[in-house]
Amino acid sequence: MFDLEYVKTIGGGRKIRPYDMAFAADGSIYVLNHATGFGAGRFTVCNLDEDIIAELPDDAGDGAFAQAVSLAFDSEERMFVLDEAKSRVTILDRQARFLDRWGEPGSAPGQLDRPSALRFDRNGDCYVSDQMNHRVQKFTPDGRFLLQWGEYGSGPGQFDMPWGLNLDSRGDVYVADWRNDRVQKFTPDGQFIASFGEPGRGDGQFDRPSCVVVDDGGYIYVGDWGNERVQVLDPDGGFITILRGQATLSLWASRFIDSNPDEKRTREASNLYPSLPPELESPFHASSQTEPYFFGITSLHLDDQGRLYVVESRRQRFQVYQTG
To answer: pTM for the complete prediction?
Structure first.
C-alpha cells in the first residue's frame, strides 16, 4: 500500500535560496542556492535536524557561477554543478574548492545550450538535460561525450525544452519534458519506453513539469511546476495521488520571525489559508497566497530512508515527506 506522511519543513528564514540539493555519503544535505546574499552562500550544508554545518562560498575557479541550477555528487564525493547560463559543468570538492570544469556552448555533440539538470548513473557516467538543444546527453565524469538522443518535437523520444531528469534503480532515464507537459522514460542508451501525462490540471495531467524522481518500488514523483503540486504515479504511469504541500514553520523560520517583531505581527494577523475570488483561483495565485502550499518546485529527491524532499525556489525552503 502506498503512503506519504509529512515530516517537516527546512528553510524559509533566508538561510537558503534553493534550486537543487544533494546528499553526501555521511547524510549531510548540500543545498545549491540559485542566488547568494542575505546570509546564503552558494552552498548551505545542513542536516535533517536543521543544524547548519557550513556556508560555502561561490568558488568556481576562473569564473563565478551565473545560473547554478543542478547539483550532484559522483562516487568520489566530488560536487558537479551545472551552470545553465554558461552551459558548463564545474567540479568542486566537498569544501567547494575548484577542481575542474568541462562543457561549452553550442549544438554539436558534447556541446550544451542552457542545460538544466545533471544526474549520475551507477557506473559513474553523467546524464545532462540539454534544454535548448532539446536532447539528453551522456558524458564520462571528465566530460568526454558518450551518446545523445532527442530532437525538437512532440513525438515519442522528441523534446520541447526538457528540464529535470533522473534514473531509477534499473538505470532507466526519466525526463520532465517541460513544454510538452509530460514525462518520458528511456533505456540507459536512449531507447524510448513510455510517455506519461498530457497538458491540463486534472489527475495525471501536467503543466510544465520541472523534475522527476523514482523510488525503489518504481513509483514516480513528478514536480508539476505550473500546477504547483507533486503528482505520484505508479510504475506504469497510472495516477495515484497529489500533494499540494503541508509546510509548517521550520526552526530557521521560527527564529527569524521571533527576532523580527514586525514580521511576527504580520504573520499572526494573516490568514494562511485564504479564500480567493474565482478570477484568482489558479494554482499560481493559490500557492502564492497559501503559505503551506508548494510554490515554485524546482527539484525532487529521495534519501536512503525513503524520505521525499521537495525543493521550493520561490519560498526558499524544502518540505520533507516519508514515503512507504
So the answer is: 0.94
Question: How far apart are alpha carbons 71 and 68 in whole angstroms?
Answer: 8
Strand partners, 123: none
- Closest alpha carbon to 246 in 187, 310, 168, 156: 310
Domains and CATH numbers, the chain: 4-323 (2.120.10.30)
Q: What is the pLDDT of residues 200-231, one digit of tens each?
A: 999 999 999 999 999 999 999 999 999 999 99
* Strand arrangement, sheet containing 239-243: 211-214, 220-224, 229-233, 239-243
CB distance 93 to 81 below 8 Å: no
**Nine-digit cell string for 253:** 523560520
Instruction: Map grid coordinates 548551505 to a residue.
Output: 44
Q: In what order do the strands lie in the sheet with 182-186?
A: 162-167, 173-177, 182-186, 192-196
Angle, alpha carbons 282-225-86 (nearest 5°)? 135
